Amino acid sequence: MIAFQNPTIKIVKDNAIEAFPRIILTNSHDGMNSFRFMIGIYRLVCSNGLIIADENLENLVIRHINYTFDDLRKLVAKTIEELPRYVEITNGMRTTELSKYAKYDFALKALKIRKNLPESEVLSISEATLQDLLTPTRKEDEGDSLWTVYNVLQEKLIKGGTSVETGKENKLRKMRPVKSFVRDLSVNHDLFDLAKTYLDVA
Question: Cα 143 to the chain's mean position, in Å?
């Protein structure tokens, strides 16, 4: 996985640089998988990378066989064209406030993504654990906006460290950090899709 970032293109909040948009390229060393391009947002406050990928980016791939540099250039240009739409989505998340119930619902569904469970799976998680998942690690991430909650959950799920009920006996065990970039991409992809559903219901 390679991240491309232009230092002159940035997301500014309150006259300060908050994040940098990125183009994320994934590839395989053996040529068995296609090039895949996604949009990323690198937040300076937590040195954390959100990787944004939904159905509109699913087809931004190119096979290793018989491709040309022009094919690659066009695909990169198409990825860049998608960026304003995702900035608009994130702006919508910033202005969407979540209730306590919606935040707990989001956290529970996000945890199912991390555990690789279907949404229909019954998961017995205490309110204290959900609150722990939703508690930011820094002052800058405090608040009830969808954008804030999304960022807090993404960081907790990827970096691990939160104690969560596990197994039939619901013993508390700390989540391990996600180290595989393939799993990192998968969690980010599904979490972004989940976050978007709260834009309409919040």
Answer: 18
C-alpha–C-alpha distance, residues 92 and 80, integer Å: 20
Q: What gap in Å lies between CA 66 and CA 63, rounded to an integer? A: 8
Hey, where are the domains in the chain? 2-94, 100-201
In one letter, which amino acid is 119? E
3-state DSSP assignment of residue 18: strand
Q: What is the pLDDT along the chain (202 residues), one digit of tens a residue?
A: 788 888 887 777 777 667 777 777 777 766 666 777 777 777 665 555 666 655 555 555 666 667 777 877 887 787 777 777 777 888 888 889 999 999 999 999 999 999 888 888 888 888 898 999 999 887 877 889 998 899 899 888 988 888 888 877 778 888 898 888 778 888 888 898 899 999 865 4
36 closest CA partner among 49, 14, 51: 51
| Neighbouring-strand partners of residue 23 | 4, 39
**Token reading at 35:** 């090039």
